Amino acid sequence: MRYSKAVLLLALTAVCAAPRVLAQERDSVSTEVQNDSAPKLTRKRAELLVPRVALKPVKSMIPGQSSPLDTIDTSNPRIKLVLYDDNTWKYVKDGELIKNDSTFTSCWDSGKANPYHTGFSDLPDRVSIWLVDSTSQFCVPYQTKIYSRFGVRRGRRHQGVDLPLKTGEEVRAAFDGKVRISSYMKGYGNLVVIRHENGLETFYGHLSKRLVEVNQWVHAGEVVGLGGSTGRSTGPHLHFETRYQGYAFDPAWIADFEKGTLRSGVFTLKKKYLSARSNYVPESEDEEEDILIAEKEEREEEARLAAEEAAKRYHTIRSGDTLGALAVKYGTSVRQICAWNGIKATTTLRIGRKLRVK
């Protein structure tokens, strides 16, 4: 059903009943409608913005052929309200303002697939990554069934997933971002790499043609290239990768390519997912619940071990010390001290040696 811009903006006002951000009061602006008696809207009412987490799978967003008619500023200078000629609207981020953030300048190299110098031990054990919100959309790069998955393939690590397509078919950006690489690269053939606000990078390889340039800002759903079979390829397909700090992980953790949806708006990336063999995806809500329970138990065990480590006490052997005297002093037993330190009750205690006593 199609609505006038005024009706759409009124609906937006009703939905955003508890806005987080309110613009300062501005002059009323008229909205062009067929009914002359329709009420006027103030920009204050049109600038309500309430980002919210996508708790359910997020459908792929394929842009239509409509053209923008007008752009309205909001209280956030990085976000604009765009009105289209098909009587629709949406919030859009201003790429010109965002693309100069440190995310898009640090470790920025258009000639290297991995410009980072992050050691594996320096990575966090887990990090929560916002994939979409009310102004950041998702588009499946190419909707189809995966025919070659992430992991070890013929003895070599396969860094992404392969999505079959025909040469010349459109490949779209998964999220908003800035193009870091648009060039021919060994193995990948024609490659486009996009860095996103959340720090992730997405790779689009084996393209027959690249349609974007380095440093260009692109929106989710924008065509970045055409499918092909360039580089190390045995036939037309899209090689798609997701990377964090230069480390690849299975894109199927975040998206269902056959259905064309994100699994959730927020993704918790664990260090173990960066292993070449970590390509498991829950197939049911029950399995997901089991994983969440296991993760909780894992965190509790980690906390217990950390508390135990913090409670440990050590004693440096001095002249005259005996295991019996130490056991009495620290409220434990000779047997326990021996077990903690891998010694026997008859072991000679050397001066200066440290023994765990608690």
| Major β-sheet profile | 7 strands, antiparallel
Series of secondary-structure elements, N-terminal to C-terminal: HEEHEEEEHEEEEEEEEEEEEEEEEHEHHE
| Oligomer classification | single chain
Distance between the termini: 72 Å
Q: Concise description?
A:
By secondary structure, the chain is α+β, with helices and mostly antiparallel strands. Helices cover 17% and strands 28% of the residues.
Q: Which tags fit this structure?
A:
alpha+beta; 358 residues; 6 helices; single chain; 24 strands; three-stranded antiparallel β-sheet
Write the layout of secondary structure elements.
Layout: H1 5-15, E1 28-29, E2 41-42, H2 43-46, E3 58-59, E4 68-73, E5 79-84, E6 89-93, H3 95-98, E7 126-130, E8 151-153, E9 156-158, E10 161-164, E11 170-172, E12 177-185, E13 189-195, E14 200-207, E15 209-210, E16 217-218, E17 223-226, E18 237-244, E19 247-249, E20 255-256, E21 261-262, E22 266-270, H4 285-311, E23 314-316, H5 323-330, H6 334-341, E24 354-356
Antiparallel strand pairs: 1-2, 3-21, 4-5, 5-6, 7-22, 8-9, 10-18, 11-17, 12-13, 12-16, 13-14, 14-18, 15-17, 18-19, 20-21, 23-24
